[in-house]
Design brief:
Two copies of one chain form a homodimer. By secondary structure, chain A is of the alpha/beta class. In chain A, the strands form two sheets. In chain A, strands 7-6-5-10-8-11-9 form a seven-stranded parallel beta sheet. A four-stranded mixed beta sheet of chain A has the order 1-4-2-3, sandwiched between helices. Chain A has ten helices and eleven strands. Chains A and B meet through helix 6 and helix 10 of A and helix 6 and helix 10 of B. Chains A, B: Belongs to the class IV-like SAM-binding methyltransferase superfamily. RNA methyltransferase TrmH family.
Chain lengths: 281, 281
Amino acid sequence: MDPLITSPANPSLKLARRLRERKVREQSGLFYVEGIRLVAEALAQGWSIEMLIIAPDRLSSEFAYQKVEAARARGIRVVEVSPRAFESLSLKENPQGIAAVIHQRWGSLSAVRPDKGELWIGLEAIQDPGNLGTILRTAEAVGAQGVVLLEHTTDPYDPAAVRASMGAIFTQQLVRTSREVFLRWVAEHHPPLIGTSDKAAQDYHDFIYPEGLMLLMGSEREGLSPVYASLCQAMVAIPMVGRVDSLNVAVATAIVLYEIFNQRRRKGKLTSACKGEERIP
Amino acid sequence: MDPLITSPANPSLKLARRLRERKVREQSGLFYVEGIRLVAEALAQGWSIEMLIIAPDRLSSEFAYQKVEAARARGIRVVEVSPRAFESLSLKENPQGIAAVIHQRWGSLSAVRPDKGELWIGLEAIQDPGNLGTILRTAEAVGAQGVVLLEHTTDPYDPAAVRASMGAIFTQQLVRTSREVFLRWVAEHHPPLIGTSDKAAQDYHDFIYPEGLMLLMGSEREGLSPVYASLCQAMVAIPMVGRVDSLNVAVATAIVLYEIFNQRRRKGKLTSACKGEERIP
C-alpha cells in the first residue's frame, strides 16, 4: 500500500482540486464527486472511476469501508490521504473523507428517441449549475431518460450540479449538441417537442401530452428562443397570479414534468383497470 | 445635496455590507436589496425604506432615475456613492448601481387564517436561503398569502433568499413563530393543515384539498417532524420512480402548490360554468 499522502501539493489532489474549473473538466473528460452517497452510486452504476480518494481517519461508516474494498478488488486506484490533505480538496465542511475522480459520460443525440415513447428534457442555455442538477433530480423522479443540453448550457459535471442532482447525474443520460446537429436530428426523426413559454395560450394543465416527448425549457432570463419554439408541436404556459411574472426554471420544469408524469400514471391505471375488466366474465 | 461618497468605510456603506450577516439583520431589523427591479418593487409595495444607495455613474436607465426622484420626493434618504464605493457592497458583478436598506416586516400568526379560505405555506427548519426565496416566488405565483417559518428556518431576508424570491419577498406575508405559539394557534383555530411525507399513503394528486389550508413542508434533510405531522388533517406523498428518493424542497413545494392551484382553478371554472347554466332557462 502506498504511504498516506499528507501534502496538498500531491499531483492526484491537485488534479481533483483543479476539476472545479470547467476548462480542466473539458480537457480531461473527468469530474469530481464527494461523499459516500454519490461515490456509492457511481460504483453501483458502473461508472469508470479514475481514482478514489479517501481519508481513512475520517471514514467512519462500515458501509464506506465496504465500498472502498469492493472498488479496490475491482482494480480501482485508491489514494489514501491525511485528514488535512483531504480538507484541501473538499468543498464541504466536515467532509466524510471519501471522494472520487470519475470519467464523464456523454450520450449521442442519435440514441435520443422521444418518438419511441421516451421522455427527455431539452435545456437551452441554462446558466445555474444548481438549477441543472435539480432538473436532473426531478427528471430521475419522473422516469425520464435524460437531458439534452443545447447552446451554452452550464456543465452538468460542475460540482454544484452534481451535488444538486443527488445522484441523478449517474442515471440520467446526458447529451450535448450544437444547434445545427439538433436541427438535423429534428428533421430526421420528427420528435414530439413540447416547449414552454409564459406567453403561450395553451394551459400546461389542460394539454394532453403525447406518449413520448422532449420538453424544451429556455434559459432563466430569456426563455425558449424562437428557433426552438418554432420546432415545437405545442407551446404550453404555466399560469401565474400575483406579482411575479416567472418561476424558477427548475421549478417550472418540475411542474410540467409532474403533469406529464401524472397523465402517464393515470393512463397506466386506466389501462390496468381496463385489463382487469376484461378478465371479469 | 451631500457630496459623493467615495470611501467604502463610510458608515452607511458599512451598515449595508454588514447586513449580509444574519445577526446584524436581526439586531437592526433591516435588510439589503440590490438592483432596480427589487428596489422598484419595494417602493411600489410601500415598504419602509431606511435609505437608497445609488452610484449615479452606474445608473443608466431613465426608469431608475424616476424611481430615485420619486423616493427623494417621499423624503427617503438617498446616499450617492462612487462606482468603486458601490462595488464594495454589491453582491453582483456589474451592479446596476442601485440598492436599498429596508425595514423588515413580520406578520402575526393570529392574522393567519387558512380556516377562512387562505392558502399558506408552513416551513419547518428549511436550511437553504435559495430554497426559501424560490418557495416565496412560487407561493406568489399561485396566489398564496404567505409563509410561516417554524423552528430554525433560514432567514427570508438573507440576500440569497431575497434574490431568489424575485420580488415576492415584498408581497408574501412572513410570519415566524415558536413551536409553542404554533401549537396554541392550532388548538384555537383548528386550521386545515396538510403535510407532505415520502412515506404517506395518500397520493398528492388524488387528494381533494380543502378550500383554505396551510401546506406544511419539512426540512431538506429530515422532512416534516412527527410533532407537526401529527397536527395534519392529511399527509400526502409525491410519487417518484427511478433512483432518487426525494425531491428538492422548493420543487416538492411547487408541485403540491400547483396541484392545489389547479384544483382551485378548476373549481372556479366549474363554478362559473354552473352559474352560466343557471342563467340559461
